[in-house]
Amino acid sequence: MATRAAAHASGLRHRSVHMLVFNAAGELYVQRRSFEKDCSPGLWDSSAAGHVATGENYRLAAGRELHEELGLAQNTALTPLFKLDACQATGFEFTWVYRCVATATVVPDPVEIIEGRWCGVEHLAKWIDLAPTDFTTTFQSIWPRGVDNIGSRLAVE
Fold first, then answer.
1. What Å distances lie between residue 13 and 49, 64, 145, CA to CA?
2. What angle do CA 140, 146, 150 make, to 5 degrees?
3. Which of 141 and 147 is assigned the larger pLDDT?
4. Which has fewest Cβ within 10 Å: 39, 100, 136, 151?
5. pLDDT greater at residue 58 or residue 11
6. What is the pLDDT of residues 43-61, one digit of tens each?
């Protein structure tokens, strides 16, 4: 078993989760990663993300990361959207992407996140088109499929 840093440094394939967190207005929360991160520092990313620990399943990791990064309950209802294969754009991570609606206030972890904001889907689409390098390569991979998978689900469930 390799550490997170070793997995990234060596390009080893490993597991991760990304969550797309919406509010009641259908806006997506995006976070700007800390400059202390070893991967994609200072770039905008999905609402919350993280690695799946040994012995942990994707769903449990998603709940843990929502709690650690955004202060949301670990049992937040999550809808699995799709899985990305491990490739260079994802940091060689097999990534499950989930969607949820935040019913509580998002409280970003200041060690992980230097900025966060709620964005309308159309606004975010324009931002990504105009400045794709503002975003992590993983989020750039998630975005087109995420929009396809959320189109009919923007209303609060």
1. 16, 21, 21
2. 155
3. 141
4. 151
5. 58
6. 999 999 999 999 999 999 9
* In the chain, domain spans: 4-148
d(CA 93, CA 107): 26
Question: Does the structure show a pLDDT above 80 at 79?
Answer: yes
Sign of CA dihedral 55, 100, 84, 4: negative
Total residue length of the chain = 157
Torsion angles phi and psi, residue 18, rounded to 5 = -130, 135
**Does the pLDDT value for residue 30 go beyond 50?**
yes
The fold of the 4-148 domain, in CATH, is: Nucleoside Triphosphate Pyrophosphohydrolase (3.90.79)
Q: Annotate 34-72 with b (16+ C-beta within 10 A) or e (fewer).
A: eeebeeeeebbbbbbbbbbeeeeebeebbbbbbbebbeb
